[in-house]
Amino acid sequence: MKKELKLFLVMALGLLIIPVLGGCGNSKKTTRAEPSSWETIQKNKKVVIGLDDSFVPMGFREKNGQLAGYDIDLARAVFRQYGIKVDFQTIDWSMNVTELRNQTIDLIWNGLTITDERQKALTLSEPYLTNQQIIVVKKSSGITKLADLKNKSVGAQSGSSGAQDIDDHPQILKNRIKNHDPILYDSFNNAFIDLNANRIQGLLIDSVYANYYIKHMSNSSDYRIIKSNMPSEQFAVGIKKGNTEVKQKIDQGINQLRANGELKRINQKWFGK
Fold first, then answer.
1. Distance from C-alpha of 189 to C-alpha of 169, rounded to nearest angstrom
2. 137 and 120 within one domain
3. d(CA 39, CA 36)
4. What are phi and psi of 185, to 5 degrees?
5. In which domain, by residue range, is 148 found?
6. Closest CA relative to residue 177, chosen from 210, 141, 201
């Protein structure tokens, strides 16, 4: 009788454990974060794009707090074709890949330069814009060429392709400048503040930013632009690794804008060409 009772208890306990274990397995599946697939974006009719909202003219806040910029217009125009609303979320640019992996955002679309490192970490759209790294100095500094930056303090944005270029091509800047390392800033705005205050003597910066920013400054004639001799760059949209359908839809959308003249209109608005 005792053996039968023990056998009954063991069997009953087993029946209780199996559903619990099964429930645990299902819980993992339902709580695991799924990639931001095209199907999900279409279903929600919304896509969340991460950006540095101080990157003029790609994506920045106007005096009234509204977002504006080349990438803002381009992203909206692409997703408008699919009936999808674009929400923009400000992120720490140096953490952009982490934000995408953690699915805080669906895309990085804000003057993202194609690099070997980013190609390994992300799926990237086809390039849609070419950019150059240039050096901005004040005319009053007397600096007119790269050689004049010897032992001078030079700034760059943290996490930017320009900062990476300094390490990748040390013979151009790294071996010349003070302490053989740039002073890193969280935004180009803060870097310009230090440049104007003579705390740095040069700033390695994207040409698309510098040309627009300087053009709209009251003291624009105070600056000189020097070629950096860094390789030219191309901008692309950053997509979570493996989301090829999202890439295809973005590429198709940009190509359609190129075909119907909308891309040319956006280029003319922001770059005059």
1. 25
2. no
3. 8
4. -125, 150
5. 133-227
6. 201
pTM equals: 0.71
Can you give the CATH number for the domain in which 170 is found? 3.40.190.10
Write the pLDDT tens digit of every residue in 49-96: 999 998 889 999 999 999 999 999 999 999 999 999 999 999 988 899
